[in-house]
Amino acid sequence: MSAGTLTLSSPAFHNGGTMGATYEYRGMGCNGSDVSPAVHWAGAPAAVKSFALTVWDPDAPVHGGWWHWVLFDIPASSASLASGAGSTNQSAAPAGSVEGKTSFGKLGYGGPCPPVGSGAHHYIFTLYALDEAHVAGASAKTDGPALKLLIAHHTLASTTLVGRFGRP
Question: What distance in Å separates the CA atoms of residue 100 and residue 29, rounded to the nearest whole number?
């Protein structure tokens, strides 16, 4: 792993680009496949011991936005997540990774599902390089806001990738 500026990208969409229907939530009036997009990162600090990834929609019409994915304890040897890694099938994410609770009240990835006519929402994928192999105090019950508090003093670097999605 080469150290430098931490970057995050996806072959599914470019930064600020539109996410396809494959990644859309399935339920609540949305008809996507609810598959998490592949993401790749580079430039992690040499001292990294694990990674965490969150996906958050600040445009959701609820206080605090909507958490679509909470994943942590991603091994430091990882540099990507395959498409579908947000499945609750434990073999989909890197061994040792832990899925946290989303705003949907479930584990794993929950894709975009903005209200009809609310315009394109921003889905902020944030990757955190951490100085601990396992997030102390975190479990499968940990949600996005709780994870951010737990890792606040353990983040060596972070980077974001923004996807957009809307329903007419």
Answer: 24
